[in-house]
Amino acid sequence: MTSQKLISLLAAGAALTAVNLSAATGDWVNLFDGKSLKGWTQRNGSAKYAVENEQIIGRTVHNTGNSFLCTDKHYANFIFEVEYKVDSRMNSGVQIRSHSLKSYRGGQVHGYQVEIDPSERAWSGGIYDEGRRGWLNPLKDNPAAQKAFKQNEWNHYRVEAIGDRIKTWVNGVPAADLHDAITPSGFIALQVHSIPKDKPEGMEIRWRNIRIKDLGPAKPLPLFDGLTLNGWVDGAGNPIKPGGWVADEGALHRKDKGGSIYTELEYGDFEFNLEWKIAEGGNSGIKYRVTKYDKALLGPEYQVLDDDKHPDGKKREGRRKSAALYDLFKCNDQKQLAKVGEWNKTKIVVRGSKAEHWLNGKKVLAYDTTSEEWKQEHALSKFNKHKDFAKNPWGKIMLQDHGDLVWYRNITIKPMPPLD
Q1: Is the domain of 237 the same as that of 368?
Q2: Does 246 lie in the same domain as 171?
Q3: Which long-range contacts link 103-107 to residues 24+ away (Cβ below 8 Å)?
Q4: Which backbone phi and psi does 280 adopt, to 5 degrees?
Q5: Where are the beta strands (DSSP E) in 5-59?
Q6: Are 234 and 200 in a shared domain?
C-alpha cells in the first residue's frame, strides 16, 4: 500500500468517526424535572427564577447585571433542545459551553450564547460570545432564520455542539453554523438580560421541555488531513497560495518561500501534538496563542532547530535550542534531544498562565506567565517591549517559515476547558 493511499484511508477514517459521533443515539436526558430547580445554580445577576406549570420562568428586575441559571453539570459534545416563550420587550439567550471562574473577571459568566432576540433585528438563533468576543455568527445574512422566530408564541431551539462546530435551528429552520474551538465544554445556562430603568420589572421568559443528548467528552481534533492545506491560512487570514507550503507524502512541507502559516481557528487551553523534521542547518518554530499585538502577529514560540549547525543553537545560553521557549526559557535538559533529518515528537500543553514543552516523550520545559521567573527572563529578552503578548488567553497556532526546509505531520489539538 502506498503512503498516499494510507493517508487517504486515515482521512476517511477520521471523517467516519466524526459522522458516527454526530449520529450517536444516546438517550435523551431531561435537564428540568418540571417541579424544582434541582441541578441548577443561579450566577451573577439577581433576576427572579421560579418554577410554575412545569416551566422555568425568568423575570426581569432593575439594578442588576445579566443573570444566569446554570446547570451544575458540564457538557462537551451534545444535542440540546428547549422550548421558550419570551416577552417581546426583553432580551435573553441560552448559554452553552460556558464558565464562571474566579480567575476571569471575578466569576463573570462567559461563553457561547444562542441568542433570544424578539427585537426587529431578529437575530434569534445567532451565536454571541457572552463576556468575551461579542457576535460570532449573527443572522443578518440568513433571512429564513430571522423569519422563523414566532413573536409571543412558543419557539423551539435545537443546538448541536460537536467538536469545533456549533449549529442551531429555530423552529426547524437552520440558523447559525459556527466553527470555533476556544471553549470545548462547559455548563448550559438560561439568561435573563439586564434591563434599563425605562423598562418594567417582571417581564418574563418561560422555558420548558429542556433536554440534552450527551455525546461524550472533547476529543483531539486533526489540524492537517494529510492531503491538503485546508484549515490553514496566511497572516492576513487568506487561503495559502500554492508553492510555498505543500502537502507531500502526508506531511506539511515548507518547499519554497511563502511565509508562515496559521490555523484558521483560535484556541484557548489545549494539548497540541505534532511530529517535525528539519533539514541540516535548518530553523523553524511553532508559535501558539498567536494574536495581533502592537501591529504584529505574536505568540510564544516552541523552537524547531538544528542545534549544532544553526548559529541560534549557541545563543542566549540555550534559550534558542530545540523545544526552548524562544529567547526566554531554556530546556531543563540541555542534551541533544532533537534529531536532525529524522522525525521528532512535540507536545505543547497550555492551561491558563501555565505551559509545558515536551520533546520526544520528555517534558523539557514548564513556565508560568504570572511568576517572578517570567518577569526576570523578560527583563533580559529582546521581546521585553512585547512582555505581555504571551498572556493572551487564546490565539492561533503558527508554523514558521524561516527560509529553511522543514516538515510537519500528525498535527492534532485537543481543546481543554479553562482552569480557575
Answers
A1: yes
A2: no
A3: 103/352, 103/418, 103/419, 103/420, 104/131, 104/418, 105/131, 107/43, 107/44
A4: -55, 130
A5: 29-30, 40-44, 48-52, 55-59
A6: no
Please state, in angstroms and as integers, the Cα–Cα distance from residue 119 to each residue in 115, 142, 153, 270, following that order.
Answer: 11, 16, 14, 38
Cβ atoms of 247 and 228 within 8 Å: the answer is yes
Say how far apart CA 114 and CA 402 lie, in whole Å.
Answer: 42
Distance CA 30, CA 212 (A): 6
- The reply to whether 147 and 251 lie within a common domain is no
- Predicted model pTM: 0.89
CATH number for the domain that contains residue 237: 2.60.120.560
Helix (H) or strand (E) holding 287: strand 283-293
pLDDT at 290 > cutoff 70: yes
Domain stops at, among 191, 216, 241: 216
* Residue 25: pLDDT band with limits 50, 70, 90: low
Helix, strand or coil, per DSSP, at residue 312? helix
Same-domain pairing of 236 and 330: yes
Same domain, 286 and 341: yes
How far is Cα 114 from Cα 127, in angstroms, rounded to an integer? 5
Q: Position of cell 455548563?
A: 187
Cα–Cα distances in angstroms (integers) from residue 322 to residues 191, 234, 302, 364, 368, in the given order: 48, 24, 7, 10, 19
pLDDT at 140 over 80: yes
| 352 conformational bin, left if phi > 0, alpha if psi -120 to 50, beta if neither | left
What would the grid cell of residue 241 be?
A: 497560495
Count of structural domains, the chain: 2
Grouping H, G, I as helix, E, B as strand and the rest as coil, residue 10 is helix
